[in-house]
Amino acid sequence: MDLSKKTFHWMMTQRICLQETACYTNAVTQEATEEVSLDSPEREPILSDGPSPAITPVTPTAMLTPRMGLGTAEMFERSLDEIEEDDSGDTFDMHIAVSDPEKVGDGMNAYMGYKVTTKTSMTIFSKNETTVRRRFSDFLGLHSKLASRYLHIGYIVPPAPEKSIVGMTKVKVGKEDLSSAEFVEKRRSALERYLMRTVKHPILLKDPDVMMFLESSELPRAVSTQALSGAGILRMVNKAADAVNKMTIKMNESDAWFEEKHQQFENLDLQLRKLHASVECLVCHRKELSVNTASFAKSAAMLGNSEDHTALSRALSQLAEVEEKIDQLHQDQAYADFYLFSELLGDYVRLITAVKGVFDHRMKTWSKWQDTQLLLQKKREAESKLQFANKPDKLQQAQDEIKEEIEELEGKVQQGEKDFELISKTIRKEVSRFEKERVKDFKVVIIKYLESLVQTQQQLIKYWEAFLPEAKAIA
Amino acid sequence: MTSTIDDSDKEKALSVSVDLNNDTSLLIDIPDALCERDKVKFTVHTKTTLSSFQKPDFSVPRQHEDFIWLHDALVETEDYAGLIIPPAPPKPDFESPREKMHKLGEGEATMTKEEYTKMKQELEAEYLAVFKKTVQVHEVFLQRLSSHPILSKDRNFQIFLEYDQDLSVRRKNAKETFGSFFKNMVKSADEVIISGIKEVDDFFEQEKTFLLDYSSKIKDSTARAEKMTRSHKNVADDYIHISSTLNSLSVDDNTKVEGRVASDQELKLTELLRYYMRDIQAAKDLLYRRARTLADYENSNKALDKARLKSKAVAAAEEQQQQCLQRFNKLSESGKRELTSFKGRRVVAFRKNLIEMAELEIKHAKVGQTGDSLSFYLFLYFILGQKFTYAKLTVSLNSLENSRK
């Protein structure tokens, strides 16, 4: 079947990535590029569209099968999650809710305060349930601290929700209308997702700043997050410098995994952005449809009123009612479109930017290492040149100096190499964790979204089926 | 671009108007139409048992302008003043799909080949829908004429059906076009008359009030229904973009469903409203004409009184008054008949179309259910990077539905 052929081909390109997943869960130190024998007989049962009982990632278990020696059928049952949980210690059990947005203060200094409630059974936290009040800049401050600490060594730090001058000004000014309520809700939901993503990361969870954010009642005001502050301007300058540097660094990628991953993320980025734009369009149009349906419903009602044939008049009024209900349906669907689908895509577009940033840091680390190596080489050349210099008295002093420098540089080169290897290793782990999270995230959201679509269709059927006898009753 | 529709398509094309008359002595249909650039050439096919025609079965090619000529000829015929002349079919309007096609061509570079093909398909379907609609509307016009006891015998109508040469020699020339423009101005003056005149007949009083009110309401409804279907079309287009981005491999039921709903709804609801908007205008025209004869009659009465006072040309004035009265009575009588049958026709047509629309909505909603899960299976496949079996996904969806019940 054509579908299975494509599946197979697709699987082939993914095998290296999933190989990593297997490595990670088994904590087996293997070289990333180790070939896995994918001989056909083993793969056939996976690819058939037969009744596979569980929605499980089948490929990694197939790779584990020969090692673990379990029956294939049984392996199909166990999900990757279960395998991982067998290995890890404290199972992740934490729930953060962001709620009760309240306006604090007045005028242009006003801000929205949110209640952050943490419920957990994990031992690293002092209490089972904590509630604190935070404002938007607190979240940004947390993110900037985490980013400065972890990004450059290869950890994918989830990006914070974006600032919005227009949205906030409306709130500050006190406009109590639908769009500012929507804005606050959108932000609240984004903040919640941000915190959940941050704490799901095992390393970030243990960061003292994160714990402080979640537990301590008072937090120092994060002034450096303001756009026009000193720190803000410094950030902008750094960003520009980075962009220029990126263009000049030409890395010799020795590791095919990174090459491939980089490409993969570039593609994913493009596709997600496009999809996100389309979904935003869809939300907009569906809202429009809802408005137009409502206006039609009104005019149909008026038409029904002026119709003098009684049965027809009643039918037209019924039509108007049906259309009104449908309009509400469209509105709800638009809401679901947005909050489930569109926001998720937006989050992932930003996340992928963070991932790309991490890859860039690796490049920078490599470049630093190479530069140090070049410098070392130059110094060595200088040293050997000294051998042929004709100043015997200064020779010894110069030679000693150079030797010192060379030693220092050798140390730096070693460090640089270590750093580079460390960041590469970290990135591998992070990327596989990211992929797993992504799968989980999307699965949850897609199923919810599908549910909403199915429900809408069912309601539509109900409404029209109720209308049909009315139409038939016109005599 | 040339395109034709054949019989199988015609079967599916559904009429907004119903024929209450089961007389088969004169059967007209448009089995074939050709679209070239801006011009649409209809093949009008007549089957008749009447002896007034030369042949029992014949076809002629006609253009839109020929239909307009026929309509105006009928309107101008004095004898038919007391009849509701079926509204002229609107000019074929391919502007909207053509504009979209143009935009699509411009945006081709930014879309994937697949997306482009799909959009093109949608556009072609839209174009075809417009084409079918215009054929239908022209056909209905002729069928209304053929089922009318008096209009079907009209000489011009016969010429239209039979004359196998080009009708352009008989069509309006520029002078006459100007004349019709003038006539429209007169008509708006009529609207003032009709609202001012004191009605002598209860029936007509009622009809007048009803028609004036209904006419404005139906215009409003038509406009809003059009807006609604346009929005629905936009949503359908968005689904195309989304699904193409999802790299779907196989059938994308979802987009077809949404697209179909938009175009079928178009054929049903909006067309129904549009058609009756025009029909109501034709009914109003009848009332205007009758009101004018009433005004004439009243004027002639006044003239008679004046003549009697002056004892001059009394006989002529008397005759004039008699004529006016006769005309007025004739119009009132036939007008009453026409308006009553009009009401019956309208009720039946609304019923038929509303039922069909509801049934279509149900059918599409049911298909939409499976369509969505199909396209999302592919979505999951792409984004999640795992292999779902289709069976499992539908099972989970069904269990969702069951748990909700």
From TrEMBL, chain A:
Q: Name one GO cellular component term.
A: cytosol
Q: According to Swiss-Prot or TrEMBL, what is its membrane topology? A: Peripheral membrane protein
Residue runs in coiled coils:
392-419
> Which compartments does it reside in?
Cell projection, Lamellipodium; Early endosome membrane
Boundaries of every PX domain copy: 92-221
Keyword RNA-binding belongs to the record: no
| Molecular function terms from GO | phosphatidylinositol binding
GO BP annotations of the record are: early endosome to Golgi transport; protein transport
Keywords annotated in UniProt = Acetylation, Cell projection, Coiled coil, Endosome, Membrane, Phosphoprotein, Protein transport, Transport
Q: Which family does it belong to?
A: Belongs to the sorting nexin family.
Q: What does this protein do?
A: Involved in several stages of intracellular trafficking. Interacts with membranes containing phosphatidylinositol 3-phosphate (PtdIns(3P)) or phosphatidylinositol 3,5-bisphosphate (PtdIns(3,5)P2). Acts in part as component of the retromer membrane-deforming SNX-BAR subcomplex. The SNX-BAR retromer mediates retrograde transport of cargo proteins from endosomes to the trans-Golgi network (TGN) and is involved in endosome-to-plasma membrane transport for cargo protein recycling.
Q: What is this protein called?
A: Sorting nexin-2
Native species: Oncorhynchus kisutch (Coho salmon)
- Upper classification of the organism: Eukaryota, Metazoa, Chordata, Craniata, Vertebrata
What gene is it encoded by? SNX2
Automatic annotation (TrEMBL), chain B:
Q: Which residues form the signal peptide?
A: none
* A GO CC term assigned to this protein in UniProt: cytosol
What would be an example GO MF term here? phosphatidylinositol binding
Which InterPro entries does the entry link to?
AH/BAR_dom_sf (IPR027267), PX_dom (IPR001683), PX_dom_sf (IPR036871), SNX5/SNX6/SNX32 (IPR014637), Vps5_C (IPR015404)
Q: List where this protein forms a coiled coil.
A: none
Q: Does the keyword Protein transport apply?
A: yes
Protein name in UniProt: Sorting nexin
Q: Which organism is it from?
A: Oncorhynchus kisutch
User: Which classification does the entry list for the species?
Assistant: Eukaryota, Metazoa, Chordata, Craniata, Vertebrata
